[in-house]
Specification:
Layout lengths: L1 E2 L8 E4 L3 E4 H30 L6 H18 L16 H12 L2 H25 L14 H22 L1 E2 L8 E2 L9 H36 L10 H37 L2 H6 L1 H29 L1 H38 L3
Antiparallel strand pairs: 1-2, 2-3, 4-5
Subcellular location: Membrane
Main location: membrane
Protein name: G-protein coupled receptors family 1 profile domain-containing protein
Length: about 350
């Protein structure tokens, strides 16, 4: 049944007796479904391109493939296109805890999003030492040790998000959302606010400043000191390739800042306001919360588009994979036709 008031945005569908799916829910669900589907496909293609192209097996590309893995997992574990429908779902405590910790409560999503942030930070620092601090070779990542750096970022991300994972449980008596997750407007006790504020400052705001510092230092070296990516005779192609890669990395950093900073700023604000203020502005803040969370997930959808737009290597790799797929398809069709002709000859040779 459909009910409506004077404002069309209040159109809602009533399910059961207490759960309301509003037009806002439908809009966000549609947007999430779009970015999740195409984002998973896009990040999957990026991973395949790097794996299938030996010339792309470089330190930076290993970090970028780790970013694509984190983005792909962020999209797969994103509950944004279904969590609004969980208000009236009743589960057993054990099953409910599992659903909240793994899927609906953003516990796994927090790890993958944080891993994306750490990876972008490591990429920026790696480029900084490679281009600005060229004589400090001990701090550079190489193919031999980049795996250790990637493993360390995953361990750190899991460790940082572990308190949120523990506190993320199913509430059988909940009247709104059944998962008691940290990144929400409900049940914001002082300890949870402290965790959120600390998390945002240390693991979202601080990496943002580190990334900006590294790329500003590189930009200063290119534009003013002119000691980075100089087109020396005989190395023009190599330096131009460095510039294209740098342009891609800066684009990824800008997308991260634009998509993630509003989320951090919003929750820092939520952490400092009083409960009475939050209650008075709940509807507005709830919409703002959904919007900044969508932006956060949107970053995982945008990154593969940036690879395709900024990097000729990724475009060439995609064309190469498409050609191989077409060749494989043609061979399959040809083999099938040969088999069918063979079967026809066998049937003709059989005595009637």
């Amino acid at each position: 049944m459909m009910t409506s008031s004077g404002n069309s945005s209040n159109i809602s569908t009533i399910i059961g007796s207490t759960t309301y799916i509003t037009s806002q829910d439908i809009a966000f669900s549609t947007l999430y479904s779009f970015i999740v589907f195409f984002g998973v496909v896009g990040n999957g293609i990026v991973i395949t391109i790097v794996r299938k192209t030996p010339s792309m097996h470089t330190t930076t590309n290993y970090l970028l493939i780790n970013l694509a893995v984190a983005d792909l997992l962020s999209l797969l574990f994103c509950p944004g296109f279904y969590d609004f429908a969980l208000h009236d779902v009743k589960l057993k405590q054990t099953v409910g805890d599992f659903v909240c910790k793994v899927f609906a409560g953003n516990a796994v999503l927090s790890v993958t999003v944080l891993e994306s942030i750490f990876t972008l930070t490591v990429v920026a620092v790696e480029r900084y030492f490679s281009l600005v601090k060229t004589f400090n070779t001990s701090a550079r990542l190489r193919k031999e040790n980049v795996g250790y750096a990637i493993a360390a970022t995953w361990i750190l991300a899991c460790t940082v998000c572990f308190p949120g994972f523990l506190s993320n449980n199913y509430d059988e008596n909940a009247t709104k959302y059944p998962c008691n997750r940290p990144w929400t407007l409900d049940k914001l006790v002082p300890l949870k606010k402290t965790y959120i504020i600390t998390f945002c400052f240390l693991f979202m705001i601080t990496p943002t400043f580190v990334i900006l510092f590294c790329y500003f230092a590189i930009f200063y070296g290119i534009r003013f000191k002119r000691n980075i990516c100089r087109e020396n005779p005989g190395e023009v192609a190599k330096e131009q390739s460095k510039k294209r890669l740098l342009k891609l990395l800066v684009s990824l950093a800008v997308a991260f800042v634009v998509c993630c900073s509003p989320f951090a700023a919003f929750f820092i604000y939520i952490g400092f306001i009083s409960q009475s203020t939050l209650n008075q502005r709940y509807n507005t803040l709830h919409l703002a919360h959904r919007s900044v969370r969508f932006l956060l997930i949107l970053n995982s959808f945008i990154n593969p588009l940036l690879y395709a737009a900024q990097s000729s290597n990724y475009r060439q790799g995609l064309r190469r994979i498409c050609r191989l797929s077409q060749k494989h398809a043609n061979e399959t069709i040809s083999n099938r036709r040969v088999f069918e002709k063979h079967q026809e000859l066998v049937e003709l040779e059989q005595p009637v």
